[in-house]
Amino acid sequence: MRRSFTFLLRPTRHQEIALAACLEDHRQLYNAALEHRRIAYAKAGVSIRYGDQSAELKHIRGDDPNGQGRWSFSSQQATLRRLDKAFGAFFKRVKAGRTPGFPRFKGWGRFDSVEWPKDGDGCRWDSQPQHPTATYVRLLGVGHVRVHQHRPVRGWVKTIRVKRAGSRWFVVLSCDEVPAEPLPATGASVGIDLGVASLVTTSDGGQVANRRHLAATAGRLAAGQRDLARKKRGSKRRRKAVARVAALHAKIRRQRLDGAHKAALALVRAYDVIAHEDLRISNMTRSASGTVERPGRNVAQKSGLNRSILDAGWGVFLTILADKAESAGRELIAVNPAGTSRTCARCGHCAKDNRVTQAEFACTACGHAAHADVNAAINILRAGLALRQAAQAA
Q1: How far is CA 75 from CA 16, 49, 66, 352, in A?
Q2: Which of 25, 84, 119, 277 is catalytic?
Q3: I want to staple 384 with a disulfide (CB 3.0 to 4.6 A). Which of 42, 84, 144, 333 is the partner?
């Protein structure tokens, strides 16, 4: 399996300056390569590829030894591949008939990471293994940077990425051949329904509360945004205000990740088979504003619902659940959610009127009454087990 390990860096002041310079030079390289492609196509109708721009790196580095020439050649190639992937995604959207979104130039706050594609090529993880208490990562042009390694790294390190988040620096290791950690079998199966009132409701009646971290911090965020709006662009005070707002968003993200990890781990430990809804969250949170000719209805209500869904972090939770289930040897089954909240778990009658309120379910055919989310979770479990049985029979 491939897994990522993220650790906090403890750079010295000089190393922090070097890391910022490295990030800035890679950002300028990305923007210059994008401008090269734009001008070549606009003026001569020529499409520039990754291979063309990678071949020019040697001359760029030679002409700028104190700038671009300071950094790893392979990391600069990774930055050019990053641009190439952006163009690949652009043409894929054009071909599919979707709104394409042409690759954009990266501003200072829009380029926050640099990748080294291979451990040992311009970078080295655990570069001072003889050190008795600390771990270091060596980066060409920066030096040996101390790492706050809070857990062991398993597998072998394939790529190393350094990213900036606010005033902090992190190293992200992508490792291959990470051994699985199977858990003992429990013989239990469960269906889970994701919601806004409760993050997770299980088919046996259990619930995981939705902490609503964004809503809890909304007042402080609003005050920070108002303070930011009053600051002059380019001023030192505005940079500090931006940092305060970014720190609040980072805290919300960490809280959401922590809750998702704990909820997913509890499920993986308790159940062998977990069935969940195969949600299309991007479609569910699409804006209802419409167009000038055809304005949407209930736009404010839909906006509030979208905010609540994104605050719950369904996508983050499902991604973490899938990773933990794979590592623990558990089976995860995605079920089509259509009709699961309107179908009676006792008699199978499906009708819109069965869902009395957000929390109450009362079947109009047999009179079965239950919590609406528990009823939906039972339907999800049955559908998941049916899919599992069909797959085993095939």
Answers
A1: 18, 18, 16, 55
A2: 277
A3: 333
Contact by Cβ (8 Å): 245, 225: yes
**Active-site entry in 25, 84, 119, 193:** 193
In a shared domain, residues 199 and 107: no
Distance, CA of 319 to CA of 305 (rounded, Å): 21
- Which residue, among 65, 75, 68, 55, has the nearest Cα to 24 in the 3D structure? 68
Assess whether 144 and 201 both reside in one domain: no
Question: pLDDT category, 166, cuts 50, 70, 90?
Answer: confident
What percent of the chain is helix, strand and coil (3-state, nearest 5)? 45, 20, 35
Summarised one tens digit per residue, pLDDT across range 301-345 is 888 888 999 999 999 999 999 999 999 999 999 999 999 999 999
113-144 in b/e form (b: 16+ CB < 10 A) is bbbbbebeebbbbebeeeeeeebbbbbbebee
Together in a domain, 111 and 160:
yes
The closest alpha carbon to 4, from 171, 164, 126, belongs to 171
| Domain shared by 122 and 199, yes or no | no
The answer to whether residue 373 is catalytic is yes
Length of the chain: 394
- Is the same domain home to 203 and 328? yes
Last residue of a domain, which of 129, 155, 176? 176
**199 and 86, same structural domain?**
no
Secondary structure letter of residue 7 according to DSSP = E
Give the pLDDT confidence of 182-237 residue by residue, as tens digits.
Answer: 999 999 999 999 999 999 999 999 999 999 999 999 999 999 999 999 999 989 99
Active site residue 277: yes
∠ CA 172-174-179, rounded to 5°: 125
